[in-house]
Amino acid sequence: MTQPTVAILMPGDMGHAVGHALREGGRDVITCVAGRSDATRDLAARAGMRMLPSVADIVREADMILSILPPAAAAAQAEAVCAAMRAVGRHPVYVDCNAVSPKTVRQIGTTVSETGAAFLDAGIIGLAPGKGSPPRFYVSGGDPAPMLTLDGLGIEVRAIGETIGRASALKMTYAALTKGTWTLQTAVLLAARQTGVLDDLLAEFANSQQAALASMRGQIPRLPADSARWVGEMEEIAATFADAGVTPDFHTGAAEVFRVLARTPFAEETRETIDPDRTLEQALAVYCGHLHGSDKTD
Q1: Among candidate residues 1, 7, 236, 233, the one with its CA nearest the CA of residue 117
Q2: Which residues lie across from 138 on neighbouring strands?
Q3: Domain 5-164 CATH assignment equals 3.40.50.2000
Q4: What CA–CA distance (Å, rounded) separates 152 from 172?
Q5: How distant, in Å, are the alpha carbons of 13, 73, 148, 227, 272 from that of 39?
Q6: Contact predicate 63/5, CB 8 Å
Q7: Lowest mean pLDDT among 36-45, 180-189, 212-221
Q8: Mean pLDDT for the chain?
Q9: What Å distances lie between residue 273 and 78, 180, 267, 268, 269, CA to CA?
Q10: What interhelical angle do 210-219 and 166-194 show, nearest 10?
């Protein structure tokens, strides 16, 4: 029996790994890399995905489209796919797997549903397939059956209700803690360095906050590689909190921390090219040089 064809747009770090996992599970996986970088093309090729010339070709062949890309591009991606659906006259299931607010995903859902295509809201929690435990795809809105057919193929799929926005709300509140904590820790250490007490603070952390310090040493030097795309995620989290009547200020601040890191030369790295020997202290010295738009280091 022919397996459904799944499209991945776009094959970045998470997208290409999901595509590879689905291929290993026997699915036909397609993508389109027209206009994308050489790095993206390389990831798609390494994942073994069939690369088609255009989004219209994706719509012609796909039974289900998974949108996995930086949140700032989620709405434009949906509009491009919907335009192709109208032009081609086919309406594959569209699953928005991006880190966007419930309000944003409902707007995307409306855009997709107006074409006659089925729409699902999905929030991804966890590392890309192959990097530990399988990521969890929480799914809400309409009939989750198409996504549930992918459960166990390198990912876990968990249906959490019929309301579009529930899955995104779960993703937003989860990432509010994880990525929000990393930015708070970074801000604390930047302030300590700028006020001349970094060594004293690190010594105190070594005495009373050993687990937190170990996490900071392991995580904070690696953040710039993802910082540019995480700015948009923090803004979506802030919008989620504001819509819930909770202060958005924590995560507007988190977005600003990621903007600082995105100005550093380390932001040119990918997850595969991050310098594993860079220390926390070395990273902070460079980060401080890019506060307030400065390009200086000491």
Answers
A1: 7
A2: 123, 158
A3: no
A4: 24
A5: 10, 18, 30, 17, 11
A6: yes
A7: 36-45
A8: 95
A9: 31, 24, 11, 9, 6
A10: 100
pLDDT tier, 271 (very low <50, low <70, confident <90, very high otherwise):
confident
Task: Provide mean pLDDT across the span 263-289.
Answer: 96
Tell the residue number behind the tokens 């995905």, with chain if given.
49
Share of the chain above pLDDT 70, in %: 97
Neighbours of 229 (CB within 10 A): 18
Question: Helices 224-243 and 102-113 sit at what angle, rounded to 10 degrees?
Answer: 90
3-state DSSP of 188-257: HHHHHHHCCCHHHHHHHHHHHCHHHHHHHHHHHHHCHHHHHHHHHHHHHHHHHHHHCCCCCHHHHHHHHH
Show Cβ contacts of residue 197 under 8 Å, excluding neighbours closer than 6 positions. none
Q: What letter would DSSP give residue 115? A: T
The predicted pLDDT at position 275 comes to 96
Q: 254: which 2 tokens?
A: 């988190």
pLDDT of residue 36: 83
Residue 110, pLDDT above cutoff 50: yes
Q: In which residue ranges of the chain is CATH 1.10.1040 found?
A: 169-293
> Which pLDDT does position 143 carry in this prediction?
95
Q: Name the pTM for this structure.
A: 0.94
- Which CATH fold would you assign to the domain 169-293? N-(1-d-carboxylethyl)-l-norvaline Dehydrogenase; domain 2 (1.10.1040)
Q: Where in the chain is the domain with CATH 3.40.50.720?
A: 5-164
Evaluate the CA torsion angle 23, 28, 29, 34 in order and state its sign.
positive
